[in-house]
Design a protein that fits this description.
By secondary structure, the protein is an alpha+beta fold. The chain is 35% helix and 23% strand. A hairpin with a 2-residue loop joins strand 12 and strand 13.
Length: 493
C-alpha cells in the first residue's frame, strides 16, 4: 500500500476512470446479476487427474498478475483458495484481452476455460472467456500485517479475509466447533430452543445490562445478559433437556477475553446435578477436540493441553490455600478475612462478604495458574445466588467453573429449585443493587413463581463459545474469533 496520500488518491481516481470507460463501452460490471460457477479452485486442484482437459467456469478476485504482451498469468482467489488463469490473446480475443490487461488487483472476474498444467507444473485454467463481474474501487494492501493501524483488521474484516487466508480458516473452524457442539447435544437428546433477547428484567448472571426503550409499551427493556432463567422455566414446563447457543450482551469492559456481545451456550438437564454437568463438560470438550483437530491433545500458545477426561476437581478454598497458604475454611469472621486479603495485597472495596473475599483472592492468586483443564468447585454461596447449597457445608454451593489455560471457560451448578431460598437470595441481591451494585441480580417474581410450580432437581451449564474457539484455533484475543468485534467508531472526516 502506498504511503503518499496524493499518489494513492490518484490511483483511486484512475480506478473510477476505468469504470467510467467500461460504462461508456456498455460493459458496466455492476449491471451483471449472476454468473454460473461450475467449480471451485480447491476442488480442481484436488481432482486434477479427473479435471484435466475439462471445461470449467470459475469466478473470483484477481490477487496478482504477471506477464505482458500477448500472454498473461493471473492468480484468481475464490472462497476455497487460489488458482491460476492463463490468458492468451488468440484464445480470449483481442478486445477482451486488452480489457483484461486494464483490470486491477481486487477486481472480481468470471472465467470460462479448460483445465491444464503449465510447463512449470502449475494447475491452471486456460481462459477462453473473461468477464468483469465487479470493479474494485479501493486498493488492497500488498501485505496486510504491514499496516500501521492494528484495529483496521477488525474494522475492515472483509479486507482481512481477502488478504489473510488463515483468518478465514479460523472462522471456518469456528463453524465446525459450533456444529460439533450441536451434534453432541442433539445426540444426547437435548432440544435446541430460542428464548427472548429483549426482557423487562436482566437476570441469570451478575453483569451490567444494556438498556433500551420499548416505544409502544413505554417501558425500559434490557438486552439479555444470560439465557438461564427462561431455559429453567422450560424445565419447569416439562422439557427434560434444553439448550440454546446464542448471543448475550453485557455492558462491561473490553479486553483480550471480553467483548460486549458474545456467544453463550447454556443447557439444562433435569434429574442430574453438578457432577453430571462436569462429566458432560469434559466429554463435550473431548468430542469437539476430536471432531475439529482429530485428537484430545491440542497446542495452545506453545503449551500442550490435554483435554482427555476425566479432569481434576478442586474446591475453590483448597485452591486458594494451595497458592496462598490461607485456609478460608477456618475463617468465620469477615474482618479476619479482610485482614488476610490485605496481607495478600488484594484490593477490596470494604463491604465484601467472606465469600466475595475468597473469590477476589482466587482471581488474584489462582486463576492464571490453572493451565491444564480443571474443575474449581464449591463456590461460596454469596457469589452463587442460583446454585444449591452444599449439604455438607452450607457456606458453599454445588457449583463449578472449568478452567483451561489460566482462564474460566464456563459456569455450572446443581440448580437451586427451592423457591423460598431463591426468593431470599433475590432479596439479598436486591439490597446490593439498592446499595449501588448495578451488577447484582434483579428480583424476578415470575421465576420464583415458576419454582413454586415445581422444578425437578436439575443440572445447568454455561460455556463461553468464543473462549472455546480461542482455545481450538490458538488465538490469544477474542477479537480474532469474532467476525465483527465491537469497536469504537472512527470520527468522520
Amino acid at each position: 500500500m502506498m504511503n503518499d496520500e496524493s499518489n494513492l488518491n490518484e490511483m483511486l481516481l484512475l480506478r473510477r476512470e476505468k469504470l467510467n470507460k467500461l460504462i461508456e463501452m456498455g460493459r458496466d460490471p455492476f449491471k451483471i446479476e449472476k454468473y454460473d460457477v461450475s467449480h471451485k479452485s480447491q476442488y480442481i486442484k484436488d481432482n486434477f487427474d479427473e479435471m484435466e482437459g475439462k471445461e470449467v467456469s470459475i469466478a473470483g478476485r484477481i490477487m496478482s498478475r504477471r506477464g505482458q504482451g500477448k500472454v498473461g498469468f493471473y492468480d484468481i482467489q475464490d472462497s476455497e483458495g487460489r488458482i491460476q488463469l492463463f490468458a492468451k490473446v488468440n484464445l480470449i480475443g483481442e478486445e477482451d484481452y486488452e480489457l483484461l490487461k486494464t483490470y486491477d488487483i481486487g477486481d472480481i472476474i468470471g472465467v470460462k476455460g479448460e483445465i491444464f498444467k503449465t510447463k512449470k507444473g502449475e494447475i491452471s485454467v486456460r481462459g477462453k472467456e473473461v468477464v468483469l463481474l465487479s470493479k474494485s474501487l479501493q486498493i488492497l494492501p500488498e501485505k496486510w500485517h504491514g499496516l500501521k493501524d492494528p484495529d483496521l483488521r477488525y474494522r475492515q474484516r472483509y479486507v482481512d479475509l481477502i488478504v489473510n487466508p488463515e483468518v478465514k480458516e479460523t472462522f471456518i473452524k469456528r463453524s465446525k466447533i459450533m456444529k460439533a457442539i450441536r451434534e453432541y447435544l442433539d445426540n444426547k437428546d437435548f432440544l435446541e430452543v430460542e428464548t427472548p433477547v429483549l426482557s423487562t428484567l436482566a437476570g441469570g448472571a451478575s453483569a451490567r445490562p444494556f438498556i433500551t426503550h420499548h416505544n409502544a409499551l413505554d417501558i425500559e427493556m434490557y438486552l439479555r445478559i444470560s439465557l438461564e432463567l427462561p431455559l429453567k422455566r422450560l424445565i419447569v414446563g416439562g422439557f427434560d433437556r434444553v439448550y440454546e447457543m446464542s448471543r448475550v450482551f453485557r455492558n462491561e469492559g473490553m479486553d483480550a477475553s471480553h467483548n460486549p456481545e458474545f456467544t453463550l451456550l447454556e443447557l439444562y438437564q433435569s434429574y442430574t446435578d453438578y457432577e453430571g454437568m462436569m462429566e458432560l463438560v469434559e466429554s463435550l470438550y473431548a468430542h469437539v477436540a476430536e471432531e475439529v483437530t482429530g485428537a484430545t491433545k491440542i497446542t495452545y500458545q506453545e503449551q500442550e493441553i490435554d483435554l482427555t477426561p476425566p479432569w481434576p476437581r478442586v474446591r475453590m478454598v483448597d485452591a486458594v490455600k494451595e497458592h496462598t497458604g490461607v485456609d478460608f475454611d477456618s475463617i468465620d469472621d469477615v474482618e479476619k478475612a479482610r485482614e488476610e486479603a490485605k496481607k495478600l495485597r488484594v484490593e477490596l472495596k470494604g463491604n465484601e462478604t467472606i465469600g466475595e473475599i475468597i473469590s477476589e483472592v482466587f482471581d488474584e492468586y489462582v486463576e492464571d495458574k490453572l493451565i491444564q483443564p480443571v474443575f474449581i468447585t464449591h463456590h461460596p454461596v454469596d457469589i452463587s445466588p442460583l446454585a444449591k447449597k452444599s449439604p455438607e457445608d452450607p457456606k458453599y454451593t454445588h457449583r463449578f467453573e472449568p478452567f483451561i489455560c489460566g482462564s474460566e471457560a464456563g459456569n455450572a451448578f446443581s440448580e437451586l429449585n427451592d423457591p423460598i431460598d431463591q426468593k431470599e437470595r433475590f432479596l439479598a441481591q436486591t439490597k446490593k443493587r439498592e446499595a449501588g451494585d448495578d451488577e447484582a441480580h434483579m428480583m424476578d417474581y415470575d421465576f420464583v413463581n415458576a419454582l413454586e410450580v415445581g422444578m425437578p432437581p436439575t443440572g445447568g451449564l454455561g460455556i463461553g463459545i468464543d473462549r472455546m474457539v480461542m482455545l481450538f484455533t490458538n488465538q490469544s484475543s477474542i477479537r480474532d474469533v469474532i467476525l465483527f468485534p465491537t469497536m469504537k467508531p472512527l470520527e468522520n472526516k
